[in-house]
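Box 3.1 A note on notation
Throughout this textbook, protein chains are presented in two layers. The first layer is the amino acid sequence; the second is a token string describing backbone geometry. Keep the layers aligned when reading.
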Amino acid sequence: MMRARRAARAIAWLAAASASVPRAAAAHPVRVFVVNPRVELRYADSYQNYHDKMAALLDAGSPRRSELVQSGVDDIASHLSPRDSSAPENALVAFPEDVGLIAGLIGSRGAAARSATAAVGGSTAAFASLAIAYSKLIRYYTQQFPGLPGLRYLFLAETDTYYRAFYETFRELAIAYGVHIAASVNVAPARRTEDPTLVQMLRDPDEPTRGYAYEAIASNAVNTLFMFAPDGEVLALDDVGTTVRSPSQTDGVLRGSLNKAYLTEIEQDPLGLAYGAVHDLGVLDTPVGRIGSVISKDAWMIDVNDRYDIKRAQLILQAEAFDSWAFTVDPWQPDGFKDGGF
């Protein structure tokens, strides 16, 4: 969680871009909020609980604030217009790497995984139980995209679950508070479909009356940053690096904004995630500045940092998921962190 009494905001003064940078804008203040929620199973059992946890982090006026956020932690909404008359027009809320990962445990299909303690196999048992629960959809995506590595098929099988929880939650919050929100999750590009046959197959069985579902349309389940605009669209890049809006300008395709290029060992095996490409790590032109993304390991790669230096990024988001499940705890970790693009 955010540290108690430590304000979760910063003022980023965006200097005027040089003449070589497209869409140069006058310098203007932007309020930037960094949110670090603790991953807890208590908000991973339902879509509503996942949504309410994220909403409670943003707003002290949330009905479940006292239940889901520790006492004394600052919020975000009180520092936004119109509640704060001094607040600038533009704001960015940045969540950490893999804030959407726990959404994969939602619902009855994730019940066994949520109960997989260290004594009964921990994360290995959790993934195994999810593979069984999503076996029908794993078979479907195996037919669509044969020959994929690791647990890639599980991430494809959970496409509807992830987009229903992660995408819909952060889209709604971006609209409700009029802010840009940066958050990441492991998903493939997808489409929302209302085809009855596909909906019946892909939709979470816990929501039998939902008239739509999300279908993965590609095999590249990636660790990807979504940059949600205040109107709910996702800002992404087209093939020539121009910022476009997803899904309205991407033929209905929903996808992340910038994909992680360098994967950690655990992302390669057993997770089997797809690599992003360094040459696709462009800059998002947004009202809060020219934004770059270095998810975790990307921040330590010279070619990534040099690329953003050349592209004149004004604000680089370094999303991290820190936990002993993914790395060895090291007392010198803060020094290692500072050795990145920072």
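The radius of gyration is 20 Å. Confidence is low (pLDDT under 50) at residues 1-24.
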